[in-house]
Task: inverse folding
């Protein structure tokens, strides 16, 4: 039975010898015994008994029907069943996107412990937030059921109680986006948390001794003393998109409202990187790219260290094995949340029944761009002469590379492309690209790959 389950021809051949030896000892006709084993061998290729097949067919029909006619409810149920396994949630979230379903962040005013559905949209389960247990979520839902939606973070702290949902849990809720329905930026909510907790604790102490607040800041007035409860916190430092996504990753285990790899979609397309969800077994080496979300370091029998890297490109996650020689050379590139480009061989993983990859080359995205970019194209219209100095000031710190700059000029009376001289060749790193995009606009700056890649090939 184990040999049939492994589906290995060589294993079945060993079992054939054992089987035929046993039938010979029992005086069973050799031809009949061979025919019987042939049937088992065929079944080992891929087979089910009829009752098992019928059950699978019924379940397949039921799930297909539900997914077709109740897509949001079906996917919410599937996500809830695997909500503790981030590696399974990531491709399921991507499947929701492919189906055209909206997946909203956790929501203190609409969410439940598990994934739920409201107005055809999936609301991320509060129970999937790291550091938030079932008890605090139950307290939250009870307060919302008894007295209606929360109006602001001050109202939330007062009604739920900071003894039930502590500061760490509150920070996790904010960073996960659970207060986004209040229409306040996450950084403002985080800045106001100290005051919200302090006010809630003071009101709880007053209530415990039966004392009213002389200044009208008790439970009845709550946030009514100010038209804007966040007025003292609106000047706090704004979070970048990277800060927002980092908060989601640390609290949910994945990027929900965006993904860092989206910023490099054009670059990865130019580099020929395949999406992890589209990988297949092949004899040819393939190139993939993604964020490192995990690294396990293991020692082999010779005492050498090798790594198993978990790669995330938003479409899926995959473990990539980096063996000892390569691991020693590239270990510094394998830091958490680093974006890397990996070339390697894809094969079937008998342990997981999925795919696995063995790395042959690992490089940072910045190095891959440096090696493959054929040019940095900058789109310009009519500009004042002084703008040339401004543009040069952005380029100056990054000179000395091998990537030429191409100015694509487009005006009413003239248009064309000009390749700047070798003295203006640059290193096409993130800093340069971000500076130019900030100056000109994101769609006015792009890296090109085709010509140089073909030349090197």
Result:
């Amino acid at each position: 039975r184990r040999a049939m389950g492994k589906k290995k021809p060589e294993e079945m051949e060993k079992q054939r010898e054992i089987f035929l030896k046993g039938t010979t000892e029992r005086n069973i006709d050799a031809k009949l015994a061979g025919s019987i084993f042939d049937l088992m061998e065929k079944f080992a290729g891929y087979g089910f008994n009829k009752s098992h097949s019928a059950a699978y067919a019924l379940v397949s029909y039921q799930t297909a029907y539900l997914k077709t006619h109740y897509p949001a409810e079906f996917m919410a149920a599937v996500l809830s069943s695997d909500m503790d396994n981030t590696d399974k949630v990531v491709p399921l979230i991507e499947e929701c996107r492919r189906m055209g379903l909206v997946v909203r962040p956790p929501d203190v005013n609409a969410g439940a412990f598990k994934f739920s559905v409201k107005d055809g949209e999936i609301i991320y389960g509060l129970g999937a937030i790291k550091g938030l247990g079932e008890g605090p979520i139950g307290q939250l839902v009870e307060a919302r059921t008894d007295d209606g939606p929360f109006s602001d973070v001050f109202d939330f702290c007062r009604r739920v109680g900071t003894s039930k949902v502590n500061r760490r849990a509150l920070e996790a809720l904010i960073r996960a986006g659970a207060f986004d329905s209040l229409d306040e930026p996450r950084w403002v909510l985080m800045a106001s948390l100290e005051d919200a907790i302090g006010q809630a604790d003071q009101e709880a102490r007053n209530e415990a001794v039966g004392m009213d607040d002389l200044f009208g800041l008790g439970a009845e007035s709550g946030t009514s003393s100010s038209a804007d409860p966040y007025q003292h916190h609106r000047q706090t430092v704004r979070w970048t998109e990277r800060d927002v996504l980092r908060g989601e990753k640390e609290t949910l285990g994945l990027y929900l409202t965006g993904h860092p790899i989206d910023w490099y979609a054009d670059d990865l397309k130019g580099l020929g990187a395949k999406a992890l969800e589209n990988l297949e077994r092949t004899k040819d080496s393939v190139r993939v790219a993604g964020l490192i979300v995990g690294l396990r370091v293991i020692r082999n029998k010779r005492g050498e260290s090798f790594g198993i890297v978990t790669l995330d490109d938003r479409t899926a996650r995959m473990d990539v094995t980096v063996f000892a020689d390569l691991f020693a050379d590239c270990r510094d590139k394998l830091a958490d949340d680093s974006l890397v480009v990996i070339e390697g061989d894809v094969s079937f993983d008998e342990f997981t029944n999925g795919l696995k990859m063995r790395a042959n080359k690992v490089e940072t995205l910045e190095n891959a761009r440096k090696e493959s970019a054929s040019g940095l194209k900058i789109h310009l219209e009519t500009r004042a002469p002084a703008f040339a100095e401004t543009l040069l000031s952005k380029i100056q710190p990054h000179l000395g590379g091998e990537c030429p700059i191409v100015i694509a000029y487009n005006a009413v009376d003239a248009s064309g492309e000009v390749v700047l001289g070798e003295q203006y060749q640059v290193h096409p790193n993130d800093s340069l690209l971000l500076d130019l995009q900030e100056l000109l606009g994101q769609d006015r700056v792009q890296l090109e790959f085709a010509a140089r890649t073909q030349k090197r090939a």
